[in-house]
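Worked example 2:
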Amino acid sequence: MNQQLVLVIASTNSHKIREFRSMLKGLAHIDLLSLSDFPHYTPPEETGKSFEENAILKAKHAAKTLNRWVLADDSGLVVPALNGAPGIYSARYAGNEATDLENRRKLLGEMTHLIDEERNCFYECCIAMASPEGVKKTATGTCEGFLLSHDKGRDGFGYDSLFIKHGYHKSFAELGDSIKNRISHRRKALDKLMNLLELIHVPP
């Protein structure tokens, strides 16, 4: 009988953990945990200059410290007209302890002069998979759209209530989890790792 593989999602963000659990529910051989299950673990400071660097940093540190397989992501919103902001600082755009609402308010304030195509943006997500021996694979996904001038919708998190994917008429916060989880940047990155996720197993 095959053993369950314990895979740790290197996050305490309940929204992000729920998304990963939903996307990975078809992998019966994997038992998902998160950093919420390891309250004494202290994540490293995110000192990378890109989403990929931060994802790798988080994955390697958690995998080695916890002696587990780990899935870590770093993601955020990129507005080319704002020189790529908020980018890797998306979660702390208005300060290290900022709420999602405070981050969105700062972004809207920075964008008051932008019109039409200048409001184009994209979400980017990089996911790193690591074992205690090191990083095994990384993958990046993007989701292109544009930003509204006010919040729409009550679901989602981060900048979802401002983001409308090209080809859609509702914000990510209005679409619902089932649709968002099929088309998001996180879904696209995770799809590129599914072969590895399906193959990894617990050694006998």
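The chain has a mean pLDDT of 94. Residues 51-66 form the longest helix (16 residues).
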